[in-house]
# Entry
Amino acid sequence: MKTLPLLLATLALPCLMHGQTVDPTRLGTFTMYFENDVFAATDENYTNGVRFSWTSPDLRRFGDDASTGGVAGFFDDIGWMGDSSYERNVAVSIGQSMYTPTDVHNPALVVNERPYAGWLYMGFGLVWKNPRVKNTLLFNIGVVGPWSFAEETQRALHDAMGNRSPAGWDNQLDNELGINVSYERMWRIRDRRGHGLDWDFLPYAGVTLGNVNTHATLGAEFRFGCNLPDDFGTGAISESATTPTAIEDPYASKAWVRRFGMHLFARAEGRAVARNIFLDGNTFGNSHSVDKENFVADLSAGLAMNWRNTKISYAFVYRTREYEGQPNGQLFGSITLSFNF
# Structure
């Protein structure tokens, strides 16, 4: 019982600190994601994920972005993407994910476990939002197989940590071009005013189509803390992730005015899965595969801190079993670090 008062006192401490106005340069938001099961002392299944993302400052039209406006501007006149009252952002990203069976030191094919697989990709995204809702449309294109360089990445990580190198990557999926299109809509149930201890609730729904992943998603995030940032939550790496700080006006919001904020968050997400290349195997050829579970859930909880133009978060994620015969679900850690410039 003594833990709860101590936790509340810790979250309330930033509320006692004095604010300070910051005059930032408007260059957008840069975010680094890192996910690994080393935080759970394992080396299996979804074993590593890295993503670097950049999101533009708020735009009146997608075509106003100097870097990608020539492409993004084609979407300005699509009616279902909202009227002129929405703030808009353009996002680009690059990432890599890797998947292995349980025993990475066995050079033979592990028939009853998931295939070795890597996914190296680039993403182009569009965000349109107001204080109550955020829409994200994201196109990812990349390669599955040896050209993803997942084997080289895992070997380098093992060498850096002084561990034995994995031995089974000769059994990985073959090279395949991957294309995914994802749409997600997130709502902010509570529109906060002012600062101090507060909470909000962020439900969302989405769909992903492609030869890498095809699934429907339903989830929600709850946050409680001091000086909550004016954003739409802290998600893990997903097909529709751009940045966790797609703020409606990051240069005037309290996230800039207050020096420090801290909050706890919990997120639950369910997916109805029709296609997962990392379990189903290659689309256009014979490869190792396992029978996937059609319903998968992620449960996560973590802590986030925002300091002036910077936000960092850590979450511990539990993922239910993804394929038939998988002994247990999986635990991994997720770190995000964002800078508003």
